[in-house]
Design goal:
Largest sheet of chain A: 2 strands, antiparallel
Shape of chain B: globular
Number of strands of chain A: 2
Structural class of chain A: mainly alpha
Largest interface: A-B, 50 and 70 residues
Radius of gyration of chain A: 24 Å
Radius of gyration of chain B: 25 Å
Structural class of chain B: alpha/beta
Oligomer: heterodimer
CATH topology of the largest domain in chain B: Rossmann fold
CATH architecture of the largest domain in chain B: 3-Layer(aba) Sandwich
Strand order of the largest sheet of chain B: 5-6-7-3-8-9
Shape of chain A: flat
Number of helices of chain B: 24
Strand order of the largest sheet of chain A: 1-2
CATH class of the largest domain in chain B: Alpha Beta
Number of domains of chain B: 3
Chain lengths: ~280, ~575
């Protein structure tokens, strides 16, 4: 029906078999490490590793193509914005200046700036494969259990699961509401002028919001009727005990995070310099 | 009684937001292992009674209660909602609102998870409960893949897994088609027999619930219990005549034919009903007096679909469907979920464009007209009125479509007031929409379309979830519109609606048209009914037992006489 984006793929690969909690821990530690370090060597090593893991998962390009394009678009915007707002950021960080090409006014391309932006690009490249993997290979049912396991309150964790459950229903509501609105002559297409279109949008959102609030009331009553929120703890149908592979994955990521931190801060600066 | 499990004694309840009590002086006791039906129209207090049992009152809906209530010897008001839910397992009417799991398995497990049941035991109990209602194959399915009946079975499994002593069903049939409804009633009965649990059904559809026996029926009216007796006794009495409940159709037919219903005739089920030559003779006489002479009007074709084919992506949704709706005709479209009913209405309104085939309006091809252009002629009313209402005041809501079309305020006013008058909403014109009842809101949505003066009105399940009284009001209103020359197309699986009001029923199955004809003829065809998830109404089986060769003829007579008597 609608474009499938980032839905659980359900293959059987070593990555899919890991428990959700293990994947969540790996993902968080991995991202934090990648955020902290500007050490090109660490980033390259992590990139290589993330590509290996990505390959292992056997997810198909079509499953994440759309999201990848969106991310790449933001990535480009980000890169351009860095240069536009701070063309000499690299020079400031690395303390030297090698001009390559002068553009206009204060815009000069320096080797330092290129190196800095390469590092930023690498950070993206390190995090994106694992982020996509986490979303594609974690069964949504297991997600809430995983959050609860790493210490998130179960009521908050369950909210995530409920959101996943009801998003398709609300999408369907939206489709129906906009259908009936169009049939009444509320035009949402480009033929209408922008202010009018925004106003028309509102007349669709009002019933959507009201019916969603109504839905929430019904759901919460139904959940209370089934004993949700009574105990301080709850068990999870979809939780799985940690297997060897999970401990291994968590162990590895801890080691990588530690190693990257040590290498990064060894000489007292987050920024590894070639200049 | 020593094995009393539920006891109300002079119990009254008033919601915090209301002046008048919703339950008045209710005294009722239910024994362990009993199967009880609580019946009554909307607003009779039957749902409130159910909420007192499952703890929604007083823990979610606040108010003041008087009198005594005990469940298994304890007052639920002194417990918590979780503790009450350990004694009373509830299945609500809206399967989407209570299906909280991402899959069937997770949803069945939900109650167990909340009680902290260890994983191994949870798995065992979930599998057993799923097997008990025959959905073990579906454990991994998501709610979007399930039919209404399957969702309702998942709910049933969810409370079975908890192993509560009392099972409470709050309008379990409200959103099910007739065949799924019958199936759910069969499963409930089977579980009641196998487990010996106390079962309480809250419903206003008497005949449908009585598809399987119940021990006792409690009829409520305006917050009071007006009858509390075995079904046979109730049906032989005059209680239902006063209550706004529909008595089983086969009994109405017998009464119209001049037969008296007695307790000894076992009137609670059409197959158990004891009938003799006397009753058959009366039925034949009644039929003979009224047969023939019925002339059906011929309608000029207004909307024509010619071999319309449509697929969504690669999925074929409709295949070569041809269909004609006449000017001023009332037409019903039936079919199970996914048969193509909503696709059809979207094609007619122009939201989808057919892959091939043509759609004609008064002989003109409207294939190139936009949704908005078609909306001048064809109005569409959604099932849930809350999905259509976007303005605060009723007047503005109805004026919306006109204002968008650029009518002057003077003309808007004139048209809105005229429409409000037709719809019986004139006294409410200054009201905020949110202050109206569900049935009134439904009328507002119809009014908001009518004001645009369409020639065709398409309604999606206009009577779903309403009791007999509001059903009747709604349908009489639509009949009035029809008599003003508007073509009314209704998507429904309410068989009585088709028989009573429609001139024609079209059945879709798997994207194809399966049947198209007079409702009483279409609904006499077993094969068609099965593929549309409909069920034979009791009138047909009664006709067959009485030896009529043309049951459809008998049904026609019944509908005719029924109308005449109610006017």
């Amino acid at each position: 029906m609608r474009a499938r984006m980032l839905t659980f793929t359900g293959q059987n690969s070593p990555v899919h078999r890991l428990t959700g909690a293990a994947k969540l821990i790996v993902f968080i530690l991995w991202s934090v490490s990648a955020m902290i370090t500007y050490d090109t060597r660490c980033l390259l090593a992590m990139l290589l590793l993330s590509l290996v893991v990505f390959r292992m998962s056997r997810v198909k390009f079509s499953d994440y193509a759309f999201v990848l394009y969106v991310i790449l678009l933001f990535f480009m915007l980000n890169q351009i914005a860095i240069f536009v707002f701070s063309p000499l950021e690299g020079t400031r960080i690395y303390g030297s200046r090698h001009d390559l090409v002068h553009l206009v006014g204060r815009y000069t391309v320096t080797a330092e700036q290129l190196f800095y932006q390469l590092n930023v690009a690498l950070k993206y490249a390190v995090v994106i494969p694992l982020a996509i993997l986490f979303l594609l290979t974690t069964d949504p049912g297991e997600f809430a259990a995983s959050l609860n396991r790493i210490g998130v309150n179960y009521k908050i964790a369950y909210a995530v699961s409920l959101a996943l459950r009801y998003i398709p229903d609300i999408q369907r509501d939206y489709e129906q509401i906009s259908f009936s609105a169009q049939a009444r002559g509320i035009d949402l297409s480009r033929r209408e002028k922008l202010p009018k279109r925004v106003k028309n949008m509102i007349s669709i959102l009002t019933p959507l919001i009201l019916s969603s609030i109504e839905r929430i009331e019904r759901i919460s009553a139904a959940m209370e009727l089934r004993g949700f929120g009574a105990g301080r703890r709850r068990t999870w149908f979809r939780s799985r005990p940690f297997a060897f592979a999970d401990w291994l994955a968590v162990g590895c990521v801890c080691a990588i995070a530690a190693a990257s931190a040590v290498i990064t801060f060894y000489d007292g600066s987050r920024f590894y310099s070639i200049f | 009684m020593s094995n009393t499990i539920i006891e109300f004694e002079h119990f009254s309840f008033t919601y915090r937001s209301q002046q008048e009590p919703t339950l008045r002086d209710v005294t009722l006791s239910i024994a362990a292992g009993e199967k009880v039906l609580i019946a009554g129209p909307s607003g009779s207090g039957k749902s409130t009674l159910a909420h007192c049992l499952n703890g929604l009152i007083p823990f979610v809906h606040k108010g003041t209660a008087d009198g005594r209530l005990s469940i298994k010897g304890r007052d639920p008001r002194e417990l918590s909602i979780a503790a009450v839910s350990g004694m009373v397992g509830t299945v609500l009417q809206d399967p989407d609102g209570q299906f909280v799991g991402l899959t069937v398995g997770e949803d069945i497990a939900f109650g167990l998870e909340n009680r902290g049941v260890p994983l191994a035991e949870m798995n065992r109990r979930v599998t057993a409960a799923a097997a008990a209602v025959g959905i073990e194959e579906l454990l991994g399915a998501s709610p979007q893949e399930l039919s209404g009946g399957q969702k309702q079975k998942t709910m049933l499994a969810g409370i079975l897994a908890l192993n509560t002593d009392i099972l409470l069903f709050d309008e379990p049939l409200a959103s099910l088609d007739p065949a799924s409804g019958a199936q759910v009633i069969e499963w409930i009965d089977r579980i009641a027999q196998e487990t010996g649990k106390t079962v309480i059904l809250v419903e206003h559809r008497l005949e449908e619930v009585l598809h399987r026996p119940v021990d006792r029926i409690i009829v409520m009216e305006e917050g009071r219990i007006v009858a509390d007796c075995p079904p046979a006794k109730l049906l032989a009495s005059e209680v239902l005549t006063g209550a706004r409940l529909r008595e089983p159709l086969y009994l109405s037919a017998l009464k119209y034919a001049g037969c008296t219903i007695t307790e000894e005739m076992q009137p609670q089920h059409p197959d158990k009903l004891q009938l003799g030559e006397y009753q058959f003779a009366r039925l034949r006489e009644w039929q003979a007096d009224r047969a023939g002479g019925l002339v059906y009007p011929v309608y000029q074709p207004l909307l024509e679909l010619k071999e319309v084919t449509f697929s969504y992506g690669k999925r074929p949704m409709l295949q070569e469907v041809s269909l004609t709706a006449g000017k001023g005709e009332m037409l019903c479209i039936a079919g199970r979920n996914g048969a193509g009913k909503s696709t059809l209405s979207r094609l007619i309104c122009g939201l989808y464009k057919p892959d091939s085939g043509r759609i004609l309006l008064s002989g003109r091809d409207i294939g190139r007209d936009s949704v908005r252009e078609r909306a001048q002629h064809i109005g569409y009313v959604m099932q849930n009125p809350n999905h259509m209402l976007s303005k605060h005041l009723l007047y503005d809501e109805i004026a919306l479509g006109l204002r968008l079309r650029g009518f002057g305020e003077e003309e808007v006013r004139e048209k809105v007031l005229k429409t409000l008058h037709i719809c019986g909403l004139l006294p409410f014109r200054e009201w905020p929409v949110s202050a109206l009842s569900y049935g009134q809101k439904k009328r507002v949505t119809i009014a908001s379309i009518l004001v645009l003066e369409p020639e065709i009105l398409i309604l999606d399940e206009p009577t779903a979830g309403q009791d007999y009284g509001s059903y009747h009001e709604m349908m009489e209103f639509l009949l009035e519109l029809q008599q003003r020359g508007i073509t009314v197309i209704i998507i429904t699986h309410d068989m009585h609606l088709m028989l009573e009001y429609a001139q024609r029923t079209v059945v879709l199955a798997g994207g194809r048209k399966l049947a198209d004809g007079r409702p009483e003829n279409v609904l006499a065809d077993k094969g068609v009914m099965d593929s549309a998830n409909l069920r034979e109404t009791s009138l047909y089986s009664l006709a067959r037992r009485a030896g009529f060769t043309e049951p459809a003829e008998f049904v026609r007579t019944f509908i005719h006489d029924d109308r005449r008597r109610r006017q």
